[in-house]
Amino acid sequence: MLNLDPTSTALVLIDLQDGIVNMNLSPRDGQTTVATGRALAEKARASGVRVVLVHVGFASDFADAPSHNVDARLPLPEGGLPAGWSELVSDLRQEGDLVVYKRQWGAFTGTDLDLQLRRRGIRTIVLGGIATNFGVESTLRHAWELGYDIVVPEDACTSADANLHRMTIEHVFPRLARVVTASELSFEPVTSPAT
To answer: Which residues sit opposite 186 in a β-bridge?
Structure first.
């Protein structure tokens, strides 16, 4: 069991939104990933851990999206994203949660996430969401560079490809974070021994 201090820990969930959770995902589907994220969020809130919900979206002309001058361009729908694409899945957000809207893979670039976490004394981030090797990995790398301790519950993540998920979980994340399962996490106050 990994116990994290609720006063300095935040749970950050990436892109659990209507336009992404119903995509073809692996090694687990979006609904399973949402269910794990939702259970983690409930456990976190009950212990006083700050919950941060991150979602992504772009203008209809994608003028605010990152460069498209790449070799393997992601397909963008003509006329913009469908209505509701960037909305968080229903009943995920609760009062007191922080919500971050991003326009790239990672949750730090171009947002006030780092500021909001530091002002609340957060030093450890529990990170999950979709996709393991895109939004989650980009956020994790940036968080690590900013000096946060990161914990990734593997079963709170999924991707468009099981091999990409596995490669990231097994070869990238262990160099930057601690990888666990959601059931291995505990949020209990850290008490000092009596003197």
So the answer is: 3
Asked if 25 and 159 count as a contact pair (C-beta separation under 8 A), the reply is yes
Global confidence as pTM: 0.93
User: With the CA atoms of 136, 142, 144 and 149 taken in that order, what torsion angle do they form, in degrees rounded to the nearest 10?
Assistant: -60
Torsion 147-119-108-30 (CA) sign:
positive
Mean pLDDT, range 80-103, rounded to an integer? 93
State residue 133's pLDDT score. Answer: 97
Q: What is the mean pLDDT of residues 41-45?
A: 98
pLDDT greater than 60 at residue 195? no
Name the E strands within the chain.
Answer: 2-4, 9-14, 50-56, 98-102, 124-130, 149-153, 157-158, 178-180, 185-187
Bridge-based pairing state of the strands 185-187 and 124-130: unpaired
**Cα–Cα nearest to 95, from 67, 53, 40:** 53
> What percent of the chain is helix, strand and coil (3-state, nearest 5)?
30, 25, 45
Return the SS3 of 16: coil
Q: Which of 124, 187, 121, 189 is nearest to 152 (CA)?
A: 124
d(CA 166, CA 132): 9
pLDDT digits (tens, 9 = 90+) for 7-27: 999 999 999 999 999 999 999
Q: Please state the rounded mean pLDDT for residues 45-69.
A: 88
Query: What's the gap between Cα 114 and its chain centre?
Result: 14
